[in-house]
Design brief:
five-stranded parallel sheet; Rossmann fold; 15 helices; 44% helix; alpha/beta
Length: 362
């Protein structure tokens, strides 16, 4: 059984070597083998005779199937890699390709709530489903809450605010760790707001949550791609090279996020990671990705005229910072005695919550 695509589409992609056969990601068992798409948009664990879409589906400590690979018995073989197309030479045509791909992808979303931070990524997703409810998560003074309110007002959209407190974090940490198997501070602080906003959407009766995931990686949204030659966070020396480098980090991120969202009761919908959008993003030249003055240049130009100007130009923080979850998790750790001078102080606090949860029999 294949999740996310029909079996024949995957068979054709295997036969042709096409890494982007027109899907939004897939994984599962096919003809006695396990197969996972080129960006790992669907998690997959185990062996062909004992597999699942989360680690808990399989006995023991199952290894994930790497993105773009087939697992045959106990052997993993790469069958797809991201294409490396020539750089687009016509800026207007390149932006138009992004515009058409994004519109097509977001307008195919249905029966889903929208995780909405007020940035251009989530606003594009929301624009494709004008009747969908929008949810933002964060502490009362969070950047994302204020930005989402401004953007929702500009777009004339209703907004549900999932306002957090410390008790929410303390309760959710063991649940996120159980879903993802990760206890490091970065992964947990990213997963927590996703879990808590998804939990609210699920409580309101939605089983699908649409997100703007992938836009930062594909379209040059990170500060570290702006001047990569002088940034030791990336190995590449060009904007295009650095953007491709961060795109290759998506499988690990998507595994974490998908497991988190499913544990909260929803399936993620990621239209900005549709194959057609990826195809439009990969040829973009560096100046349509990120410059000293602007990031996600082509994506913003593609949104121009569809979204309000204030939303097109809006800045964005990573979810762990925009929601203030990272700050408040650090504060909780210090209050619990895990001071910053200690190595991995937030990691150790997270581990203490998980250990306490087990000791209490939950």
């Amino acid at each position: 059984m294949i999740r996310g695509a029909d079996a024949e589409t995957v068979r054709r992609a295997l036969a042709s070597g096409d890494p982007l056969p027109g899907t939004t990601g897939f994984a599962g068992e096919l003809d006695g083998r396990l197969v996972r798409d080129v960006l790992g948009r669907q998690p997959l664990f185990g062996a062909p005779d004992d597999w699942g879409v989360s680690p808990g589906d399989v006995a023991g400590d199952p290894a994930p199937v790497p993105a773009g690979h087939v697992r045959d018995g106990d052997t993993d073989r790469r069958v797809w890699s991201l294409p490396d197309p020539p750089v687009a030479s016509d800026d207007a045509a390149a932006v138009d390709a992004v515009r058409r791909a994004v519109r097509t992808a977001v307008e195919r979303v249905d029966d889903a709530a929208v995780a909405f931070s007020g940035g251009v990524d989530s606003a594009l997703v929301a624009a494709g489903v004008p009747d969908a409810p929008c949810y933002v998560v964060g502490f009362p003074d969070a950047h994302d809450v204020a930005a989402a309110r401004d953007a929702a007002g500009a777009m004339d959209r209703d907004l549900e605010v999932v306002e957090l407190d410390h008790a929410d974090l303390e309760r959710a940490v063991p649940e996120v760790v159980a879903a993802t198997g990760r206890t490091n501070a970065m992964d947990v602080s990213i997963a927590l707001p996703l879990y808590l906003v998804a939990e609210r959407a699920a409580a309101d009766g939605y089983d699908r949550l649409a997100l703007g995931q992938g836009a930062d990686e594909l379209f040059g949204g990170y500060a570290k791609v702006v001047d990569p030659a002088d940034d030791d966070r990336v190995r590449a020396s060009t904007v295009r090279g650095a953007t491709r480098e961060v795109t290759r980090s998506l499988p690990d991120q998507l595994e974490r996020d998908t497991l988190t969202l499913r544990a909260a009761g929803v399936d993620p919908v990621t239209p900005l990671l549709a194959d057609r959008v990826i195809e439009a993003a990969l040829p973009l030249p560096g100046h349509l990705l990120a410059t000293d003055d602007e990031r996600k240049v082509a994506l913003r130009r593609a949104a121009d005229g569809w979204l309000p100007e204030s939303v097109v130009a809006a800045g964005k923080k990573a979810v762990q910072y925009g929601s203030l979850v990272s700050r408040e998790l650090d504060r909780l750790a210090r209050r619990a005695g895990f001071k910053r001078r200690m190595d991995r102080h937030v990691d150790r606090y997270v581990e203490s919550l998980v250990d306490s949860d087990y000791r209490d029999g939950r």
